[in-house]
Amino acid sequence: MKFLLADDHALIRSGLISLIQQMHADWHIHEAADLPSTEKLLQAIPDMDLLMLDVQLPGSEGLNGLRDIRKQWPALSVVMISSSEDPELIRQCLSFGASGYIPKSTSNDVLGSALNLVLSGGVYIPPAVLNGLGERKTPVMTGLLNELTSPQLELLAMIAQGYSNQEIAIQKNLAVQTIKNQASAIFKLLNAKNRIEAISIYRSTNR
Questions:
Q1: What is the DSSP string of 13-55?
Q2: Separation CA 196–CA 50 (nearest Å)
Q3: To 5 degrees, how large is the angle CA 164–CA 165–CA 167?
């Protein structure tokens, strides 16, 4: 497993790397302090498995760095890290293609679980954001769910509970690609651009 940690604070990098090495001694861990060096490493190691990217990484110009990385390396899993727990910022990161958002206040156990979820194909969303996703309840959202079949509703419920595609595939004894295809069909029916919007619609009608 090849892992890249991009953060401009050496102390934070050192602490996170030490923690992750305790969890995964066999991981090859690289580090970068700004966006140019991050992109240089990604170009040198095209099969990088996971990138932890600081929201305020120098050179990123807000979330443009995340957007550029997602365009150049679409298969790369990117997890954002930040001291901020602003729900709107988290939603923006996820809508720009991040596979997760981990506040720097996150406990060690949760960090490990979040990374494992992302690496298995899931998306890690902080509980505080998940709890707030269901605030908007409208007749339109309710009507959208009525368009789904019972199996589709069951799959959407599992997605909303945080299960990854791989975990769902194992439980349903189906191929991961089949689950991905079914999830894409659900998102299309809901007019949802991604998991976050689909979860928002589901939670808004199940409060």
A1: HHHHHHHHHHH-TT-EEEEESSHHHHHHHHHH-TT--EEEEET
A2: 20
A3: 65
CA-closest candidate to residue 97, choices 73, 127, 113? 73
Q: Exposure string (b/e) for 9-31, b if CB count within 10 Å is 16 or more? A: eeeebeebbeebeeebeebebbb
Report the chain (207 residues): mean pLDDT per 10 consecutive residues.
95 92 91 96 94 95 90 90 87 84 88 85 74 47 69 86 83 89 88 78 63
Tell me the three-class secondary structure of 124-136, residue by residue: ECCHHHHHHCCCC
- State how far the Cα of 38 lies from the Cα of 97, in Å rounded to an integer: 17
Tokens standing for residue 204:
């808004």
CA atoms of 38 and 34, how far apart (whole Å):
6
pLDDT at 99 (0 to 100): 86
Q: Where are the alpha helices (DSSP H) in the chain?
A: 10-23, 35-44, 64-72, 87-95, 108-119, 127-132, 139-146, 150-160, 165-172, 176-189, 195-204
pTM above 0.85, yes or no: no
* Structure token digits, residue 180: 């991905």
* Token pair listed for 21: 């090495």
